Amino acid sequence: MNFETTKDFAKQLDTTDALAHFRDKFWIPTLNSISENNNPSNQDVVYFCGNSLGLQPKATKNYIEQELEDWKNLGVEGHFHGKNPWLSYHRLLTNQTAKIVGAKKNEVVVMNNLTVNLHLLMVSFYRPTQKRFKILMEGGAFPSDQYAVESQVKFHGFLPNDAIVEIQPREGEEILRTEDITKKIEELGDELTLVMFGGINYYTGQFFDLEKITKTAHKVGATAGFDLAHAAGNVPLKLNEWKVDFATWCSYKYLNSGAGGISGVFINEKYADDDSLPRFAGWWGHDEKARFEMKKGFVPMHGAEGWQLSNSQVLPMAAHRASLDIFEEAGFENLRQKSEKLTAYMEFLIEHFNKEQSKINIKIITPKNINDRGCQLSLVFDKQGKEYHKILTKKGVVSDWREPNVIRIAPIPLYNSFMDCYRFYEILKEIAL
Ligand SMILES: *Cc1c(COP(=O)(O)O)cnc(C)c1O
Fold first, then answer.
1. pLDDT tens digits for 270-293?
2. Are 186 and 221 members of one domain?
3. Distance, CA 227 to ligand 1 centroid (Å)?
4. CA of 54 relative to ligand 1 center, distance in Å
């Protein structure tokens, strides 16, 4: 697509955007509501932080209120006689969750929080032996993932330095080459038991080739699991087709389900009835028909549901439903189409900005190939990045700074407009004056 640098062009892109009206389904913070801002204007901020916390759908309140009403009026009976009986509330999310990650229905369930699920899944899928005990991760994985993996390794009596292998980009490069990842997997061979990667790296925005990584892991007899925190709801996923063993993600980033929102897990159907896998059990994972017989002896449910521990967290799940219903209405393929265009447009404007002035140079470290990224662009300013981030915030851009050196911006196809990208570009020009 050929983009232009005029404001009219940005407006034109919004006018012809079939998804533009979805913005009205969200609460967009305004300049005067953002605390670091003394600006009295009630103009919308440029919200580029949906990769960190997605915005609130206006409908969320109704979804939660419905459950509060049933609780108010029915008490414990809400489990059976509520409008959406809580006993099986999690199942209301199964279809759409399966679609978002490309799974079969028996392969997904929503439960707990992300890091909790990482641990639960590693209980089942990280089973080191003296010979085969290594885990391969991307260098610079999200800290919580690093801590989870380190503590799992120690729990099994190994030293993190022996058991965890982190793969780094080549000298002078920012992103990992798939060929280097697969080569490393082959090198580790029969010492490797698990590849535990992010789907999209939170810092660079690189979307890894999950299919190839999985295939290579399987070739050497290892298992492949992914943290999809930055991928779910952002990029197309086909976990079942790619034969991924397991995955987990959170719902408060691209999936707009509120701070600390419910997490999702994927467990490949080949494990659906595999009783040999160790797991930490709880009553909600127990055979549903016998759950209330209160007997000894855990009998897991078929599929991912068998990994549940506790009864459904109905209020966060209600918030999650509100957002998934919007995804359903918009259609993920349409969203991805817009997302590719929106991010390419933002990239185009930043590249143009670099050429227009000589005060600031912004390097985009996120892959240029749209198949290797979602909507996030990771920007490295040639100087004073942290200070420029503060100035951007004061001027009404909500983005985030990630140590050591990156400003992440994420134009979200559900609620960001092409004019948002243009305003970001105008603000960049203001600060470069
Ligand atoms: C956001 C994020 C987390 C956060 O985990 P919580 O348990 O939800 O707090 C963990 N890992 C990755 C890769 C993330 O992007």
1. 999 998 999 999 999 999 888 888
2. yes
3. 8
4. 14
